[in-house]
Structures are given as C-alpha cells and as structure tokens.
Amino acid sequence: MDLGLKDCTAFITGGAGTLGLAMARRFVQEGCNVVVCDTNQAAIDEACRELISLGGQAIGVRADVTNKEEVGAAVQIAVERWRAIDILVNNAGFARDRYLTKMSEEDWHAVLDVTLLGAFHCSRAVLPLMMENRFGRVINIASRAHLGNPGQTNYSAAKAGLIGFTRSLALESGKFGITANAVAPGVISTPRMQQRPDYLELTERAKSNTPVARLGDPADVAATVAFLASKLAGFTTGETVHVTGGRYA
C-alpha cells in the first residue's frame, strides 16, 4: 500500500533510540527524508549510517529538546537541506521510576520537561512551516502509562499531558491542513528490556495479560506512526492510538 510519503521530510526527536530508529527505518522505506534528532552524537551518526545504507536520505542533528535555541537551530538545518518539515514525531522521553514519596523534584521535572516542554518547543518551531505549506503531521509518542502505573507518577503525568496537548493542537491546527495525533505503546520489547534479569517473567506476564499474547515490537509502533503520517490519515486528528495488543488496565 502506498502511503503517499515519498519525498516528505520527517523530523524525529529521540530518533537514535530504539523506537525512534524503528520509525526512521519505516519512513526511509516509504521514501521519506529523515532528520534524526537526539542528544547522543555517536548514536545519531550510527543511526544515519544505517539509514543511508538502507538507501535512505538522512541527516542527524544534535539538540536537547528542552532548549528552544538548540531546537530552533536543528530545525533550521533540516529546512536548509530539504526546505520543509512535513512530519514531526515528538518521541523524546524517558522514565525515572520511583514511588512518589521517594521521588526527587529533579526526577519529576526531568521527565515532564523532556516530554512536554520538548513537544512544545519542537511543535512551535515546526508549525509555522507546516502552516505555510498547508500540510503537516504532528505525532506525539505517549504511552499506555497515561492510564496510570505505580511508581510512575511523573511519567504517567507527562504522557497524559501529552495526550491533552495533542487534542488541543489538533483543534488549533486543523484549518491549516495539519493533523495531530498520539500513539500510546504498551510493553515493547527493546534491547534494554531484553537485558533485564526478569525479561522472561515479563514476557510470560505480557502473554497472560494481553489479548494479543506477546510483547510489542518497535516495528508495531513504527507502522502506526507511518499510517498517521500518511495522506490516508488526513481526516484523523486529535486521536490516541493504543499499540498495546489490547492491554489497557
């Protein structure tokens, strides 16, 4: 199926991580130009080498999404290369799990700032370009954790906030031909998870608690992101798509 993404430019934050790189690979397969935005230069370089080896067009930009000057400079580099940014994936984020009574203010702010302030900075930098072109896709990577998880008050609050951000942005930007949607992954098998000593236990628990009895794969998330970025999803906005195998509680 042709998603109509050939020659579009996708800007992915957290693009050198497991999920970000899976999305980048899928976009390259669809004929997109890809901007890998991350904070780890070595990982950025490695990601771009892989994408180019797959026959794709990719550049890397280093930026801390909580810093609006760095975000602005990264967007400018992308625009100088490809003149437009058609797709923004706000994927940067991480968890710092602790029960609330043991959580530091630093851990609270770090998680919320990267997720929410990062989405704010990146969206505000890219939206004028999309508005001028009367086309754009903003896809925010939330999490099933927006429903709440013990030990994740910061992460759950950040992801729930990102969904509210998505809905508001959808209402503001639709008249410019821009859609905004969120993707909420469940338990995804990543190299970091596979290194956990309780990985097999987690896998069995996922099989017993999930209607689709397996862990998710990064490619599952990437496929959903690609659809929401496509012209096929032009009348879908303000939505949160759960990529959880049917697990919500």
Notes on the protein architecture:
- The chain is α/β, with parallel strands linked by helices.
- 47% of the residues lie in helices and 16% in strands.
- It is built from 8 helices and 7 strands.
- The chain has helices spanning 18-29, 41-53, 68-82, 105-133, 153-173, 191-194, 199-209, 218-229; strands at residues 9-13, 33-38, 57-62, 87-90, 136-141, 178-185, 240-243.
- It has a 7-stranded parallel sheet with strand order 3-2-1-4-5-6-7, sandwiched between helices.
- Strand 1, helix 1 and strand 2 form a beta-alpha-beta unit.
- The longest helix has 29 residues, at 105-133.
- It is globular, with a radius of gyration of 17 Å.
- It starts with 8 loop residues before the first strand and ends in a 6-residue tail after the last strand.
- The mean pLDDT is 94.
What keyword list fits this structure?
single chain; 47% helix; 7-stranded parallel β-sheet; 249 residues
Give the secondary structure arrangement, pairings included.
Blueprint: E1 9-13, H1 18-29, E2 33-38, H2 41-53, E3 57-62, H3 68-82, E4 87-90, H4 105-133, E5 136-141, H5 153-173, E6 178-185, H6 191-194, H7 199-209, H8 218-229, E7 240-243
Parallel strand pairs: 1-2, 1-4, 2-3, 4-5, 5-6, 6-7
Helix pairs in contact: 1-8, 3-4, 4-5
Shape call: globular
* Secondary-structure element series: EHEHEHEHEHEHHHE
* Mean pLDDT across all amino acids: 94
Distance between the termini: 33 Å
| Low-pLDDT ranges | none
Beta-strand level of the residues, as a percent range?
Answer: 15-25%
User: Portion of residues in helices?
Assistant: 40-55%
Strand order of the largest sheet: 3-2-1-4-5-6-7
Provide the gyration radius in Å: 17 Å
Structural class: alpha/beta
Number of strands: 7
Keywords: Oxidoreductase
Pfam family, one: adh_short_C2
EC number: 1.1.1.100
Organism: Ottowia thiooxydans
